[in-house]
Amino acid sequence: MLPLDIEKITHLFSGQIIVSFILIGLINAVLMMSISYRFLQAMQQCGYKGADYFKWLARKDNVYFTRLFMLSLLSTLGFILINMALSFIDNNLVDYAGFIVYFVFLAIFYMGELKKKDKVPLVLTKRMIRLSITYYLSIVLFSVVLVLLVNFIAIPFRTNLLANFRYAILCFCPIAVPYLLWVAYYINEPFEKLNIKKYVEKCKEKLSSYDNLIKIGITGSCGKTSVKEILKTILSEKYKVVATPESYNTPLGITKTVKRLDGTEDIFIAEMGARRVGDIKELTNIVKPNIAVVTGVVCQHLETFNALDNIKKTKYEIIENMEEGTAFFSADNEHTREMHNKCKLKSKTAGIDVSKKPYVYATNIKTNENGTTFTLFIGKKSIETSTLLLGKHNVSNICLAVAVADSLGLTIEEIARAIPRIRPIKHRLELIKSQNGVSILDDSYNANPEGVRSALEVLKNFSGTKFVVTPGIVELGFLESQKNYEFGLEISKVANIVILVGRARALRIREGLLSSGFDSKNIIMVSTLEDAKQELSKIVKSGDAVLFENDLPDKYL
What we know:
Blueprint: H1 6-12, H2 15-34, H3 37-45, H4 50-58, H5 63-85, H6 99-115, H7 126-153, H8 168-171, H9 177-209, E1 214-219, H10 224-235, E2 241-243, H11 251-258, E3 267-271, H12 279-287, E4 291-294, H13 302-305, H14 308-315, H15 317-320, E5 326-330, H16 334-342, E6 346-351, E7 360-368, E8 371-378, E9 381-387, H17 392-407, H18 412-418, E10 430-433, E11 439-443, H19 449-459, E12 466-470, H20 480-492, E13 497-501, H21 504-515, E14 523-526, H22 529-539, E15 545-549
Parallel strand pairs: 1-3, 1-4, 2-3, 4-5, 5-6, 6-7, 11-15, 12-13, 12-15, 13-14
Antiparallel strand pairs: 7-8, 8-9, 10-11
Helix pairs in contact: 2-7, 4-9, 5-6, 7-9, 9-11, 10-17, 19-20, 20-21
């Protein structure tokens, strides 16, 4: 152990030197901040859930973390090599020479990130601003303390070769970026929980003050948004209706919608999403619905639920936490039929599986490129109607919404008049006719095994060459690999040409395609959706049909 010279320590940590150390730390902090965007974006896309963010960070196919690791490793090695090559020069500036490599690699990394197009750009919400402030302060503190620490540790080696390499550790700092964000999240979390609680309490008070307001809660693994929009359109035939917009299905999403209520509304429809056991219970206690709708249960979000039984348990929380009211279940899903059988509230089923004897059902379903026609039955009454929506699964969704509308006093004629007015829900098997005569089926919002089959069934009805563009299905936990392989098998029965986006899931789909005898020449592998569109533009022609199945957020690609 080398003896410490107190006089030398005092000299090295004089005021002027300390300022220079802090300056180095601040410069490094700014450099770390410059490459933070993707991780802030991922945190937001994970719904500000620290556990989900860490799972994303730990994924083996996380290309962002891989790039960050390579940046850190190459910068550190470059710093060491440069300083080693210049070690014969007796000048203190040599200690900083390796930073040139660090700056070059950071610049390359930063320019590469700038070229990437965001699917879902980072939104500077109040919460994101608060998180960013805490995060940036954490980076500054981390970087400055690290510089002071390495200089203090290096004191015994000031005349030693090792002292020349003390700043190499700063070049490895980028690897700390995602973890510092994770720490900042947990620093802010107690305040955020209190903040959300405050808004939720105000929301509950406001909802309870409207005695005559009919409140409808809609949950399920799939079809929630579709049923919500369908129901809103039908009920608007007779009532003033407000529904949570888009996929606002969290406590804050619901509170934002309730804030807009002015007391003149007749009906409030709340979509209720969940990723963990207890989520639907929380939302039910906020809304206190008079009517519950359960659309279906599939293995979506299995990554966070871990087991299908947990998904079923969570969706049923809406029923368990209603003191009274009416419940409606899809007759076309075995799990919701089980829920109906054990439900103690007044309940009905609806769907297209006539063998299950639903109260509302449809027959003579015919889908073409212009929409779907069918015969609608409500009890013993029937009527012919049509919709712009495509696919049998959407007719099932309509039946579920019709059952609710019927319970609220709409006649079958009023319902039939409203059904043709239902507009296609954006990015949920939405038909778009392009200027060059190509039919585009935009099913890019989300994908689950059931939805995939429905989309492919609709694609069958189109003429011309059939294309499928997809990155695969996510959030299926241990089933993800198997389900993407099966997805490939299903695609092979319908598509002529397949464009696969990404790697991990795309490769499993490719295996499924090839195992079914699909021609490998008709499988195109690309890195991004933009690349897929470019490839598509080279080969698609008028009369062809293209299915965009799932468009993963940036955090998955």
